[in-house]
Amino acid sequence: MGEVCYAGSDLLNRPVDGNNIGGLTNIDEDEMPLPKKAKDMAPRDLIIIWDRPCKVVRTELLPTGLISFRCMDIFNLRGVTRRLDPDHICEVPLVSRADYLCTGVCDEKDSVILESDDGITRDDIKMPPSIVLRMQILFGLRKGREVIVTLVSSMGLERIMNVTLHTTPEPDKQRL
């Protein structure tokens, strides 16, 4: 089963326990953003800024009494800044991670073919924009290695954020 992370978690730097199909398809009450006051936010907390899930990098109390948040979008890693009143209610996004086995690449759609632990296959996830991650996926598949990708999901967005290559064990060769 995938991991769910709320504010204060170090989501992008922790190992994942198990695999499952990630993503938010039918958002119910349990998956809605959580409220938190701006004055209670701290570095490494998650926050929604300009309708994007972000990680707080730095907070600063301004002479005007406002709090300045320097954040990083968790998907495109772009920096964003927002100034808020200390009593402003911020939204904390629900973020999940799941590991999948990458079994192939669909060149026509520029997507990957992923398989979960329970055998469900999906091909709707785009190749990561990072050239390093793309090359790891292609290299691993060409060399016949087991390619495990970590898919991060939040607010209806999904992106491959990590690739791990494992050497597949060779069957024991019997001597005759």
From TrEMBL:
List the Gene3D superfamilies hit by this protein, alphabetically.
Nucleic acid-binding proteins
User: What does the entry give for GO biological process?
Assistant: positive regulation of translational elongation; positive regulation of translational termination
- SUPFAM superfamilies from the entry? Nucleic acid-binding proteins, Translation proteins SH3-like domain
Q: Which residues form the Translation initiation factor 5A C-terminal domain?
A: 95-163
Known InterPro entries for this protein? IF5A-like (IPR001884), IF5A_C (IPR020189), NA-bd_OB-fold (IPR012340), Translation_prot_SH3-like_sf (IPR008991)
Q: Name one GO molecular function term.
A: RNA binding
An example Pfam family from this entry, by short name, is eIF-5a
User: Known PANTHER family for this protein?
Assistant: TRANSLATION INITIATION FACTOR 5A FAMILY MEMBER (PTHR11673)
Q: What is this protein called?
A: Translation initiation factor 5A C-terminal domain-containing protein
Organism phylogeny = Eukaryota, Viridiplantae, Streptophyta, Embryophyta, Tracheophyta
